[in-house]
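Structure, all two chains, one model.
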Amino acid sequence: MPTFANRLAEAVRAKGPLCVGLDPRVESLPKALRNRTDADAVRAFCWFVLERVAPFAGVVKPQSAFFELLGADGMEVQGDVLRRARELGYVTILDAKRGDIASTAEAYAHAAFGPHWDADSLTINPYLGRDAVEPFLSAAKKAERGTFVLVRTSNPGAGLFQNLVCDGKPLYRHVADEVVKWNASTIGTCGLGDVGAVVGATHPRELVELRAAMPDVWLLVPGYGTQGGTAADVKAAYRADGLGAIVNSSRGITFPFHPDDPDWESKIVGAAKKAQAELRG
Amino acid sequence: MPTFANRLAEAVRAKGPLCVGLDPRVESLPKALRNRTDADAVRAFCWFVLERVAPFAGVVKPQSAFFELLGADGMEVQGDVLRRARELGYVTILDAKRGDIASTAEAYAHAAFGPHWDADSLTINPYLGRDAVEPFLSAAKKAERGTFVLVRTSNPGAGLFQNLVCDGKPLYRHVADEVVKWNASTIGTCGLGDVGAVVGATHPRELVELRAAMPDVWLLVPGYGTQGGTAADVKAAYRADGLGAIVNSSRGITFPFHPDDPDWESKIVGAAKKAQAELRG
């Protein structure tokens, strides 16, 4: 069955849990690509990364903010990058952290899963509550796509609200418990469902807790690499069957070079290869 | 001083608290405008609304989801609509509910306040915590723009997380208390600051509570009109000086007609005029 969860399982079995994050900051791009418009340089860079890291990762995560920063032209490139990723066989996660109510949430979901971005999955923000999340879940179900709900984010200040203790458990745990319910009706033959959760590698104790609390939920784990999470930290995110987590690295894979470095291409390939090996342990 | 808060005060003093929400659903547009591409029809409709409701409202709120739904072309129209609104003297709120960490939040903020969207203010989602909100506040400060942080949203299911009681007070109140701190250093001569809060009209008791808890904070109040909030409900959002709140109506102003109705233009004008009168009481 080609559910989102099953396709993700297939990608992880084939290439390991590495997810390559595409955060194409123009100022970090190789100088060699800058003899064109910013949007064209971003497209060229992302396509290069997609082509070269394919042996090492089956999942990619374009970060929408860096495309939006270039206006309408950048959003067109976002579509081009997602299209190229699909052609190359990646499972795609559009990291846009959308969240809104009723028909507005539907509009975001149709943008994400419809012909414009046509992403396999979308990150979503739970703050607005059940009727803000449900339109994303319905649209994903209809189109055989997935979602990743923000549960415990990787940034240092994430705890301000996420760690508040409400009725005896932290807010992030309340969100996790809802994710388990939303995910329950979507479990594929791989034993995991289409409603995932974002849980940062930078909080190893909470990663252990949340793995146990959401046994059938795919975890998207940011914070590995540049942000400080180690391969040992993220081990806690995998289930006994080796599935259950994809581990994102963005800058660590795509920008391990200075913009002037003529050797940038081989450094990207080297970084992806090393990350794949580290994460496979 | 041309701070965001002062410009908002000027707009409200001149035209009252009505904010016209632009949620341009293609299927709701007048048939008369549909003899062109969806993006062109959305642009034409929004420009028409902007030109005709100007006597009745000084603030407009384009909803980004409905532009994104049309892909890169729609995002170009989003820029065109914000530009036209500025030319007509409106204070603009880009309703995109963005939220992300560190340099990603910066990218969203620069998209919102930079040359592409060039909005006067942006709605933001607080779930990711302090270091996710601060890049938006810094960018807004530098560009003399504003933000509206989601505190208590207007949707029926908003309470799932927002109403959880943590350390003796509901989550939305924790967020409100942070908004008060973030806003404190931005108070303009009008007595209000540049960091606003979204508080739905559909929760009248909480609107009273939050007005008192955030005395120097501009409230953006959705939920008036089609969503069920009345002019009497939103009275609680104003301060004694008559400032302090802008009240959004989207569908109630922009879609008070059937797509076949030849009389759609006058119905929009009539709805805006009526809402202005009701809200001025």
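The mean pLDDT of chain B is 96.
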